[in-house]
Write a structure and sequence with these properties.
The chain is built from no helices and four strands. By secondary structure, the protein is an all-beta fold. The termini are close together. The protein has one domain. It is globular. A hairpin with a 4-residue loop joins strand 3 and strand 4.
Length: 57
C-alpha cells in the first residue's frame, strides 16, 4: 500500500551484504525492478548526485 500515491522509476545501486547490483543506463536497458530485502541498501541515481532510498519494512 502506497501512502502518498507517488511512484518513481530511477536507476539504482542495490547493495547487499554479499554483493552489489549496478544500474544500467541507456535506451536498451529495460526497466527491470527488484525488491530490496533484509539488510539491503538502495541508492538512487539523480543527474548530479546520489540519494539514499529509505526502504519500507
Amino acid at each position: 500500500m502506497r501512502k502518498h500515491g507517488l511512484r518513481l522509476r530511477l536507476p539504482c545501486f542495490r547493495m547487499t551484504p554479499a554483493y552489489g547490483v549496478l544500474p544500467a543506463f541507456g535506451a536498451f536497458t529495460g526497466l527491470h525492478t527488484q525488491a530490496a530485502l533484509g539488510d539491503d541498501r538502495v541508492y538512487a541515481v539523480l543527474e548530479e548526485e546520489g540519494l539514499v532510498v529509505p526502504l519500507q519494512r
